[in-house]
Design goal:
By secondary structure, the chain is of the alpha/beta class. It has seven helices and four strands. The protein has a four-stranded parallel sheet with strand order 1-4-2-3, sandwiched between helices.
Length: 186
C-alpha cells in the first residue's frame, strides 16, 4: 500500500512526440501509468505495447487559461449545462451545441476521473507520466497537482523554464485531489 511518508512516485512530463519513448523505451522496466491529454478533435497518442505500463487515461480538452473570476463563472456554466434538459425550452440541437462548448475545457468531472485513476493504480506503480500536446502546460499542471496530492514536492513545475503549468487546470485538479489539505500558494 502506498505510504506518502516513505514511498515516492517519480513524475515525467512529456509532449505528444516524447511520451511513447518515455513509456515504451526509457522507462519500460518500471511499473507506471500514463495520463494523456490531447486537444479537442486530435487523435489519441499512439503508444507502443509495454508490459509495465499498467494503464493509460486519455483525456481531451484544450489548453485554455482562466483567471479565478472566469473560472468561477465557467464552473457555474458547467453546472447549468449538466442540468439542461429538453423540457427547458431548448431543442435537442441547441442543447448539443451548448454542451459541445463544455467539452473544450478541463472540468471537475475530468479532475474526478484523474483522481479515481491515480487512486486505482497508486499501489502498483512507481512512476506517473503526464503528457499533453507540447509537454509544457496541462501535463505539468497535472503532475504538480498529483505531486501535492501525494505529499511530494511540486514547486519544480512552477520554478522551471521547461514548464508553464496551466493554473486553472492545476487549481481545479488540486481542489478535487486535495479537498482535505491546506490551500495551495499559487
Amino acid at each position: 500500500m502506498f505510504n506518502p511518508n516513505t514511498d515516492q512516485i517519480d513524475f515525467k512530463v512529456a509532449g505528444r512526440f516524447k511520451v511513447d519513448f518515455l513509456s515504451s523505451i526509457e522507462h519500460k522496466d518500471r511499473p507506471h501509468i500514463v495520463i494523456s491529454v490531447r486537444n479537442v478533435g486530435k487523435k489519441k497518442v499512439n503508444l507502443s505495447v509495454c508490459e509495465n505500463r499498467i494503464d493509460t487515461l486519455y483525456l481531451e480538452f484544450n489548453d485554455i487559461h482562466f483567471d479565478d473570476d472566469h473560472a468561477e463563472r465557467y464552473l457555474e456554466l458547467e453546472s447549468f449545462l449538466n442540468n439542461l434538459k429538453l423540457e427547458d425550452g431548448k431543442n435537442k440541437d441547441e442543447i448539443e451545441t451548448i454542451k459541445n462548448l463544455k467539452r473544450n475545457i478541463f472540468t471537475r468531472s475530468d479532475a474526478m476521473v484523474i483522481k479515481e485513476f491515480v487512486d486505482l493504480h497508486i499501489d502498483n506503480i512507481n512512476m506517473i507520466i503526464c503528457q499533453c500536446e507540447a509537454g509544457i502546460s496541462r501535463s505539468s499542471a497535472i503532475a504538480a497537482a498529483i505531486s501535492d496530492y501525494l505529499s511530494q514536492e511540486s514547486s519544480g513545475y512552477f520554478n522551471s523554464y521547461n514548464y508553464l503549468p496551466n493554473i486553472y487546470v492545476y487549481n481545479l485538479l488540486r481542489s478535487v485531489l486535495c479537498s482535505d489539505k491546506k490551500p495551495a500558494i499559487i
